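Shipment paperwork, digital attachment
Item: protein structure file
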Amino acid sequence: MTAKDWAYVSNDVIYLALFLFAISFFFYAFETAFALRNDESKSVLDRTATIRASKAALRLYAIATFFLALGVLTRGISAGRVPWGNMYEFSITGALSFSLAFLIVGRKFDLRWLGLPISILVLLILGTAITLLYRPSAPLVPALRSTWLVVHVSAAILSGGVFLLANTLAATYLWLDRMESKGSRNNFARRLPSLETLDQLTYRLVAFVFPLWTFAIIAGAIWAEAAWGRYWGWDPKETWAFITWILYAGYLHARVTAGWKGKKAAWLCLIAGSSFLFNYIYVNVWGTGRHTYSGL
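Attachment content:
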């Protein structure tokens, strides 16, 4: 097969993954709709349908993640390099990292209740990548032709997937906290974990991936010295990466030493996550500097 053939295969497989994620979303939505019914009015048939919908949604989500991984792999084969040369490739790999984080963490902690918002986020990322960010396979720009591309970018993408999952948990915490402050949870919210569980899981995810994000920044600095003759130049992307590091470091410090838990910690986690997304979206697309590789 030629490079062009592999590119077509990659596009088709990613479209298939998008379709399967959409079907998974509908099953999660079906499950949520039944969960919102009054518990006393639920029949055995309703409960059976909810369980089956939940299982089908998770299986479809896992299959979609497999095809997304296949799409990323074939994109790399078509380009003859790792598939991280522009925003389209960053986005599909980021969606894969996010999906894998959900599935892997979900094996230890029951995250089925997050299936609906997670599938929506994955659909938004992939939909944006396909419709707005797509660019044909092309050779890397000279600055990216380095083994550090694999080291630095893979660490950043993996970190981003886990950070996004932690931010989803933090947002869920704030939503439930607001609901409980006004009274009791609704039928769907009663299925979700306690606020303490959400708070602890958010902290564990950030604490787990923060060293990897630190490594990504250090690796980027070493790569910058090799490519441009300086470790740090306060380029917009470098600056926002450092700001994101400071914010997540502040979250962990406040969480451990100052006893920040609950609402304050969740807000700080969301602020740090917003910094990461600002760097990824705004700086990549509209920013200036040596790190603008969006291809747009």
